[in-house]
Amino acid sequence: MSKEKTEADDIGDSGIAQRLAKVEPVDNRRRLRHDNAFRILCVGIATVSVLVLIALLTSIIVQGIPSLSWVLLSGTPEPEPTEAGMFPALMGTIWICSLCALITLPVGVATAVLLEEFKPRTKVAAWFYSVIQLNISNLAGVPSVVYGILGLTAFVSMFSLFGNAKQPGAAVWEVGATYYDQFSNVGSDPFLTMGQEVDERYFLVPVEKRSDDPTVPTEGMVAFENRGDGLVPAEVHVVDAMAEMPTDPEALATSIDSLAVPGRISEKAWYYFQLPFGRGVLAGALTLMLVILPVIIISTQEALRAVPSSLRDGALGIGATPWQVVWNVTLPSAIPGIMTGSILAMSRAVGETAPILIIAGIVYIRNAPQHLMDSYTVMPLQIYNWTSRPQDEFHSLAAGGIIILLGILLSFNAIAVMIRHRMQKPLS
Amino acid sequence: MKLRSLASVAPALLASFLLTNSLSAQNTSLLGKVEIDGSSTVYPISEAAASGFTKDFPNVKVNVGVSGTGGGFKRFTIGQTDISDASRPIKAKEFSAAKDSGIRFYELPVAYDGLTLVVHKSNDWVDHLTVDEIKKIFTTEGAAKTWAEVRQGWPKNPIKIFAPGTDSGTFDYFKEVVAGEGSLRWDMSTSEDDNVLVTGVSGSPNAIGFFGVAYYEENKDKLKSVAIVNPELNEPVSPTAQTIENGTYAPFSRPLFIYVNAQSFRRPEVKRFVAYYLLKAPELASKTGYVALPKTVYAQAMNHCRGGKVGTHYLTDEMEKRSGPVTELYTPATLVD
């Protein structure tokens, strides 16, 4: 296509341009050339960013597709790349992100509603509002590692408020834990048996409190044993440390040394809760809340501002209270905008690694979280760990993990987009 | 149990060996949790140990973190973890921190790592380096800008240096051997991720870098390892499993450790895990790209656990650093608690 032709087409498209062309033909051609050049520049820049994205995605997909398997999705992390999976990390990510969304959305939207819909009436209030606004804008630019460190003090150890300065994060107050003293049977000391197979039995003696003294083995004490499907009562005997050990294998298996020192362990119920929070799921979700709260507040504010004031005025005019206006008029019409902001914020939370690395710090874990205080890891951390291994097989596992992470992200977004479409109504 | 000697236990043990029939299967009766954190160099070995152990004892939860040797000790010395992975011995500062919070520990070496110096595949001039030449390249006093400054006859190309992050035990160890009390130069490209170092060195013909032998083994096709002149033998030695184990690859072969909290060690699940770790260490070490220690060292480590011998071998009573090959240093005589 020749240059003149394009220009002619453009002029033909717009009546104003045509009229201008008649008045000042030379100058106009220059203007249109600039316009064209700018358009090409914009398209070029957009193409570059799309190309980079395509290149990234293809390299990940090419590298990751072969390692995508059921094992990767449902398995535990293993040193053998072929057996390794990321189920605990997947569950960790789901726990962290759902909790984070549950906490952040109400707080974020409420803050935005306060700032936008309930304008300050006194000078002091106005000053207070501007401090909040300034803080939020600044917080949006803070690197997420800083939030990790903040979360460590604020949530994990709770500023050592509970007198736990020596052991930050250790439980001071808790509910839902049962404590046991664990004894091993006599003759199964692993440093004496040296890998030989012996009848290893372990017995649990319930104790009242965490701080109780270690149980002293006594004949006839209440003991349990875990037999695969839960605790069953077990019969234990105590043999004097100075006396000869029984040689009967049956007696040996159920005997405890009279000087044996037990180890204290705990079983935690699904509702287990402790203060301070420790390095659990809740502390992680709260830290991520700090990271994404500014994003949610600012985007909700924008969405609220975009609601035409005629709607508010109309509602107020027919006698609605400010609360009724917010709940029945402003919020419903702002939901599409709020959802868009939340999508962006949650996507950021899903991919966040740095604060979690500081807060959780665990890379190898075989269990999905069972309660709010349980240890966990998240997918970005697992992926990071695999990419830093020397073996190439782990690198392709990491690529597979990225594909799964992208899948989760897209499905999160899809749900939000669906909600947005449902709620979208013409405002005028 | 301490009162019983092995001899008096023997008949009972024999009886229990005879008893075992179906016990190669899983043991579900052991419960509990083992918390590990520390060096990313030791992590693969700990991960392999944790994975193997939980196959035998499925109800024990073993969590492993990678906070770096220093970060791991920070948590270990206030009692947050049961076991700390370390790619260097404990420092005096960390030792006294542990002391302050009443924590005693077992120091158990688990494998050898050979710090490997690597250059670009097409680099045809470097084939071995002496420790003095390494000093010229890496320290602030040496600060060689070009290869010609390192040895006469080498090209006048600028040297590009890639090194592990300053928080890693690998960096600490290298610094101690090469710079001693001095410091390594600041104008190196550092990264916590050793794969970045591999990419860096393999992308520049004038580059030199260093990291654990496992990363070199996986990238042999992209990199060339540099033989180091053994200061005592006065001849260049390449890092191989053999030279690392017999100690001729000096001074860059180093032991890796786990530190076990003595209080936690009383818990049956921790004790059982440590026993598993030490028993399987030779196998796990070679599987993860490291080199097994001599059998005598593992036996000594077991003896320490058995006899309750806590403390470090790498500090003197005056809290001065003590150094030497692990085979000589790791004896009850040098224990300081």
From TrEMBL, chain A:
Bilayer disposition of the protein: Multi-pass membrane protein
Domain of life: Bacteria
Keyword Iron-sulfur in record: no
Gene3D superfamilies per the UniProt record, alphabetical: MetI-like
GO cellular component, one term: plasma membrane
Database matches in InterPro entries: MetI-like, MetI-like_sf
Localization annotation: Cell membrane
Membrane-spanning ranges: 38-65, 85-115, 136-162, 277-298, 349-366, 394-419
Main location: membrane
Keyword Transmembrane among record annotations: yes
Family statement drawn from the similarity comment of this UniProt entry: Belongs to the binding-protein-dependent transport system permease family.
Protein name from the UniProt record: Phosphate transport system permease protein PstA
SUPFAM superfamilies named in the record: MetI-like
Gene (name only): pstA
Keywords: Membrane, Transmembrane, Transmembrane helix, Transport
Pfam families (alphabetical): BPD_transp_1
One Gene Ontology term from the biological process aspect of the record: transmembrane transport
Occurrences of domain ABC transmembrane type-1 (ranges): 90-415
UniProtKB/TrEMBL annotation, chain B:
One example GO MF annotation: phosphate ion binding
GO biological process: phosphate ion transport
Keyword Heme: no
First and last residue of the signal peptide: 1-25
A Pfam family it matches: PBP_like_2
CDD domains noted in UniProt: PBP2_phosphate_like_2
Protein function: Involved in the system for phosphate transport across the cytoplasmic membrane.
Family to which the UniProt record says this protein belongs: Belongs to the PstS family.
NCBIfam families: ptsS_2 (TIGR02136)
Name of the protein this chain belongs to: Phosphate-binding protein
Chain's gene name: pstS
